[in-house]
Every structure is written in C-alpha cells, then in structure tokens.
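Exercise 7b. Backbone tokens:
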C-alpha cells in the first residue's frame, strides 16, 4: 500500500469515560510525515491537526471541533525559520478573518474574506516597520473583488490627501413611513489629478423606484457605461453646485466652495419593513483629445472617465 494512503494509528486518548480519539498519521512517498490529526469513533476529525511540507517543516496547524474549523489556522513558511506566514480564523457567517506577516514578524495586512476567499470590507495594510500605511475598502462588484475606497496614512495615524475616498452619512436608520432620511456625500480624495479634478462633476445614482428594481448586492444590474440603456431605471442627483437653492437641502451650512464636490438630498421610504438603500457616488471627467489637431474644427469624440464609489445602507421602516 502506498505510504500516502497509509493510516498509522499510534495513540488512543481517553476523554472522560465515553469518548476516545485516535491519532492518524499520513506519510509522503519519501517517508516524511504529511499530516497528523485525531478522529473520534465516527471517524470525524477532532482536536489538533498539523500538516507538513515534504521538507518536514510545519505547513499549517489548527484545532478542529467535530470536523469543523472552529479555531485559528496558522500557516508557516517553508524555510529555516518556519515562522508564521499568515493565519485565518473562521467566523460564524462563513467569512474568514485573515492576517499575514512579513518575514520579520510584523503584520502585513488584515481583514475579512468571504466564502470565495475574496476580500470584503476594510483592510488595513502595514509597512515592514509595523506602521499603518493605508486602508482599502473592498466590495464585491459584478462578482469580483473591487477596491471601492482607499485612505493613505502617516505613521502618526494622520490621513494624507491621497487615495480615492468620500465621506457620507445618512442621519437615521430607523424611521416612520411618513418620515425621510437626510443623505450627505462629499469627495474626500479625488480619483483624478489636481488639474483634471477642477473639471470633474459629482453625483449620486440611486434606483428610480427601489420597490420595483433595487440594485442587487454586487450592483451587476446597473448600467455599466454612461450611454448604456441596459440596467435598472435610475435617478441621478447632481452636486449642490447644480442645485437652484443648495441651502434648503443642507442640515448644516458648508463652505460654498465645497458645493461642487457635495451631494445632499432627502430620501423618502415607500414601504414598511427592512430595506437596503444601494447606490453609488460618481465622479466624472469629460474631455476632447487636445492632440486631435486634424479634427479640432469638426465633431470630435468626447471621452468620459468616471470613478464610482458604491455604498449600501440598511434601514428599518415602521408604520
């Protein structure tokens, strides 16, 4: 029988007077240990489990409870130090908390993975000296991992004016059907350079009637391009610069120079129960090719670039 299929029962552990575990050892063809673990009387894995590289170094180590990964899984490097490369902790919602490390032992990044091992939510990244370098917000868009926002930080923790991000808030998440929610959006860090961002426009795109057609969690039912007719019907709320009377939609006064990068509005629910407001903040830059000398006096193609920052906000509407 090949050694890779050989089960060597070497130890029986009595737990109380009822349960007993049997240690199982598997081998590589070269005779080195491949993994060790324990099974109960029903052949279900329980207790410590260790897997090894063919070199004999530890590959990963964890502890199972009734066949489930309920403890942290530590993964190691296949080098002389054989120190921790990354670790995972399985959360109750089938998501996984993840951390990885530089070779000097300092943390590299940390955050949460979904059940497809895609990054979601806020991920913090560190340099080799252990300083917090930047934070990225991930969302699943069109089924793929997507960097939604980014903040770059100094070692002191202060945020630099780099990256791409917005600030936004809704003033309440529980309200009556006759009430409304105040929403405020403002660009923090533009997706465009200093010269171009002076020519950008901002807006917030929402479903025209979310009771009939809301954005799905990964926004795959949105129009993918500016001129695309497919996708659910939407409304586009322009910046305060385009509003005839910006002050009537502001809960708190802001500098008028910020009108260009700010969107504010009131959202009114249409049904009771739990809902999710989904939409995206759009920063858009349009231009004609300045090097198109040949066609400068003719109809030219307008190029439109945009950056979308997706958001969702759960609400509960009461009668």
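Sequence design result:
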């Amino acid at each position: 029988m090949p050694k890779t299929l050989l089960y060597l029962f070497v130890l029986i552990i009595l737990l109380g007077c009822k349960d007993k575990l049997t240690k199982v050892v598997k081998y590589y063809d070269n005779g080195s240990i491949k993994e060790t673990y324990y099974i109960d009387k029903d052949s279900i894995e329980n207790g410590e489990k260790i897997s090894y590289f063919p070199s004999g170094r530890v590959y990963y180590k964890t502890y199972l409870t009734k066949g489930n990964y309920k403890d942290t899984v530590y993964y190691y490097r296949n080098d002389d130090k054989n120190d921790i490369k990354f670790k995972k902790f399985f959360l109750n919602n089938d998501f996984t908390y993840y951390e990885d490390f530089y070779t000097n032992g300092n943390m590299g990044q940390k955050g949460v993975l979904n059940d497809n091992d895609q990054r979601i939510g806020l991920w913090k990244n560190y340099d080799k000296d252990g300083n917090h370098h930047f934070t990225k917000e991930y969302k699943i868009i069109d089924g793929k991992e997507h960097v939604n926002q980014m903040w770059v930080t100094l070692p002191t923790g202060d945020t630099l004016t780099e990256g791409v991000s917005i600030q936004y808030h809704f003033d309440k998440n529980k309200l009556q059907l006759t009430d409304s929610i105040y929403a405020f959006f403002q660009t923090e860090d533009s997706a465009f350079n200093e010269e171009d961002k002076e020519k950008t426009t901002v807006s917030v795109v929402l479903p025209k009637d979310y009771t009939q057609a809301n954005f799905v969690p990964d926004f795959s039912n949105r129009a993918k391009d500016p001129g695309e007719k497919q996708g659910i019907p939407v409304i586009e709320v322009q910046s305060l610069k385009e509003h005839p009377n910006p002050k009537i939609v502001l809960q708190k006064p802001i500098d008028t120079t910020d009108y260009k990068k700010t969107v504010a509005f009131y959202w009114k629910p249409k049904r009771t129960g739990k809902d999710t407001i989904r939409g995206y903040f759009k920063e858009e830059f349009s231009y004609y090719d300045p090097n198109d000398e040949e066609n400068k006096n003719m109809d030219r193609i307008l190029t439109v670039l945009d950056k979308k920052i997706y958001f969702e906000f759960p609400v509960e509407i009461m009668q």
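Instructor comment: The chain has one helix and 21 strands. Residues 1-90 form one domain.
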